[in-house]
What we know:
The complex is a heterodimer of chains A (334) and B (526).
Chain A: E1 2-5, H1 10-24, E2 34-39, H2 41-55, E3 61-66, H3 82-86, E4 91-93, E5 103-108, E6 117-123, H4 131-135, E7 145-148, E8 168-171, H5 179-189, E9 194-196, H6 197-200, H7 203-213, E10 223-229, H8 233-246, E11 250-255, E12 261-268, E13 271-279, E14 282-286, E15 293-296, H9 302-311, H10 317-326
Parallel strand pairs in A: 1-4, 2-3, 2-7, 3-6, 7-8, 8-9, 10-11
Antiparallel strand pairs in A: 1-5, 5-6, 10-12, 12-13, 13-14, 14-15
Helix pairs in contact in A: 2-9, 8-10
Chain B: E1 41-46, H1 51-66, E2 74-80, H2 86-100, H3 107-115, E3 117-121, H4 127-143, E4 150-154, H5 161-170, E5 182-187, H6 194-207, E6 213-216, H7 223-233, E7 247-255, H8 264-267, H9 271-289, H10 298-310, E8 312-313, H11 318-321, E9 322-328, E10 330-332, E11 335-337, E12 355-362, E13 371-377, E14 384-391, E15 411-417, E16 421-429, E17 437-445, H12 446-449, H13 457-467, H14 476-494, E18 500-503, H15 510-517
Parallel strand pairs in B: 1-2, 1-4, 2-3, 4-5, 5-6, 7-13, 9-18
Antiparallel strand pairs in B: 7-14, 8-12, 9-12, 10-11, 12-13, 14-15, 15-16, 16-17
Helix pairs in contact in B: 1-2, 1-13, 5-6, 6-14, 9-10, 9-14, 10-14
EC number (chain B): 1.1.1.49
Pathway (chain B): Carbohydrate degradation; pentose phosphate pathway; D-ribulose 5-phosphate from D-glucose 6-phosphate (oxidative stage): step 1/3
Function (chain B): Catalyzes the oxidation of glucose 6-phosphate to 6-phosphogluconolactone.
Amino acid sequence: xxxxxxxxxxxxxxxxxxxxxxxxxxxxxxxxxxxxxxxxxxxxxxxxxxxxxxxxxxxxxxxxxxxxxxxxxxxxxxxxxxxxxxxxxxxxxxxxxxxxxxxxxxxxxxxxxxxxxxxxxxxxxxxxxxxxxxxxxxxxxxxxxxxxxxxxxxxxxxxxxxxxxxxxxxxxxxxxxxxxxxxxxxxxxxxxxxxxxxxxxxxxxxxxxxxxxxxxxxxxxxxxxxxxxxxxxxxxxxxxxxxxxxxxxxxxxxxxxxxxxxxxxxxxxxxxxxxxxxxxxxxxxxxxxxxxxxxxxxxxxxxxxxxxxxxxxxxxxxxxxxxxxxxxxxxxxx
Amino acid sequence: xxxxxxxxxxxxxxxxxxxxxxxxxxxxxxxxxxxxxxxxxxxxxxxxxxxxxxxxxxxxxxxxxxxxxxxxxxxxxxxxxxxxxxxxxxxxxxxxxxxxxxxxxxxxxxxxxxxxxxxxxxxxxxxxxxxxxxxxxxxxxxxxxxxxxxxxxxxxxxxxxxxxxxxxxxxxxxxxxxxxxxxxxxxxxxxxxxxxxxxxxxxxxxxxxxxxxxxxxxxxxxxxxxxxxxxxxxxxxxxxxxxxxxxxxxxxxxxxxxxxxxxxxxxxxxxxxxxxxxxxxxxxxxxxxxxxxxxxxxxxxxxxxxxxxxxxxxxxxxxxxxxxxxxxxxxxxxxxxxxxxxxxxxxxxxxxxxxxxxxxxxxxxxxxxxxxxxxxxxxxxxxxxxxxxxxxxxxxxxxxxxxxxxxxxxxxxxxxxxxxxxxxxxxxxxxxxxxxxxxxxxxxxxxxxxxxxxxxxxxxxxxxxxxxxxxxxxxxxxxxxxxxxxxxxxxxxxxxxxxxxxxxxxxxxxxxxxxxxxxxxxxxxx
Lengths: 334, 526
């Protein structure tokens, strides 16, 4: 169900949500976190689709803030598209606000909101400078707050009005207009609770490679090569992590035609161990003296990545080390 | 209950290769997002066409694989009487995985898993079949790179254990090469009394090292059961009242709404107490009553459970403080059902109990004078398992007597299944001008707060076996202690003739109610 609220206030939204909980016999206290999404109108529906799927695993309250809204004109500033637009139960709550129009909102619940509720906010003008006080009345009481920027990442997430109040800050620089520059900014300002989804995308690779090196004989690795798509940050992070942990030189082979990460090769005195992703969904593992093995290795979806982040709210110290100390151990040019 | 110390012993690092000091440079105890992936290995299932394998084991293996927790070098061998090829076995497995798996069916995952499937036809007393099994295992080592690591899952009746164990020893399958492991997984019942449990231990112990034997009590793989430890030892608000000063008594219930179904051959002569109390309920009791372990490593956890089980005292008057019953015909929910004695394959004069309730005391300072009531039964009101810690009433109530008439005892209820979670029960003022206090519930539900589907207990336990991570498996010492608790009660019951009948779909025999009433308590209605 989608409830539209034009020219409204946070008090009216909070009231509406409480009413909804009473009506549906749910306890809002059951939610274990608030997820704030800061995005542009064009990114909204895709971000909500991702979060709705991930919320099946992590029921949460979602507050999506549309940062490029315009309240000029008669209609609601939030345009619903796709599945949500076809939904029949859309209702409008008439505005009781007598002041200047600064905020339009939508509350989505039931099949339009996964396993939680979604509040979409479209603030304008002066309110844009006070996004923190905009969301405060809507947060789940005494629960962690996670902020996610699905599009352009802020240069310094912990200084952002929303980020500064968050338990955990999720960026996705790969989707910024200039990923390299955005990542440089993140690296300069990194704080404990920051995480970039580029790191989440390599978890499967990291786990498989750790399991590969976990098999005897346990010999030292003398050199590593990783390969994949050019300008693909997860590949660079994987290389930096390996360099940091193995203390061996790591080189990166970049191919503009490749998709994501395509392989990792370890040189040891007994020969080469490798894992190569051949097609989209599987990889071949080669070890000296063993038959080659095929393993299922599908590309990680945005839902996988977001689910992993919501399941893990504690600061990732390993990530911080990788982007600060590990990063400089690898040549990222080219 | 993830604990960092197990990470360093993962995979091959736990082998007997003398490389114990080696730690995987890519693993970091702070790196909590990395999943624990099992090392190269295979799972050999005896009794692969049985119900457990069909409904739980095969789906759990698939779910593990779908979650990316099984290695590329993984093999699955079915051993059974059917005249099947590997492909026919894979088709059988696929059918059951599609019907019972928790995660969605993914063709690519399935294809990789199915490539590692083999089937060995044979009887348990057929030495040739075990030679074929041995060849199949070597073939997996060669083609799939399982590196000599194999786990044998005994999903078979306990009377077949000795012969299978002997065959495994004779065919050399139980021996592991340096750096590799062989493990055996056995399911309850671990014997039917102390003597038979020790005999079983002896038989399995002759073939496998004690730390290679994994006894599965699937209750311990459940999230809620592991949450008992989080609830008790991660919080400050429960531990101060978790003792005889505040607790009046503890009720541990596992109720089933089904009858014995097709398990007549196993169930008759065993009964509810041996089937459920000896393993699940005594384990739940141990986790509820034990002191804080030094760490969550297997040895420390076992030490605390052993302490509390060895402090258990039986009531002097077993007649007054135990109860047993047998379900009679009645209506289960909205369906007419037959009584136990009318079930197929049951001796009409059987004295096997389908309901058992016992009182146990724990002779420690923490629990002196606090009875633990354990009950289980078939064809009861509904399917539910819970641990209820019931508190004493407030020593003084500064209200009119009428104000607290409706007030019961405070309680912390850990709901094990279904609807996993925790309920707190306490009194609150009813709205209105008069002062009236009534019981209300405060609820935590796993489904609502965390995830709609937590992993099945078998997923966790199979993965733990493959990783060689033993904290969630009861040791033979715990099994022996449990039988020492139950044996005198069984002996007493065996001289008491027919158990008291109770109508199907109710909460058990009147004897059970009298047993609690004698202590001034009553059973909670779960």
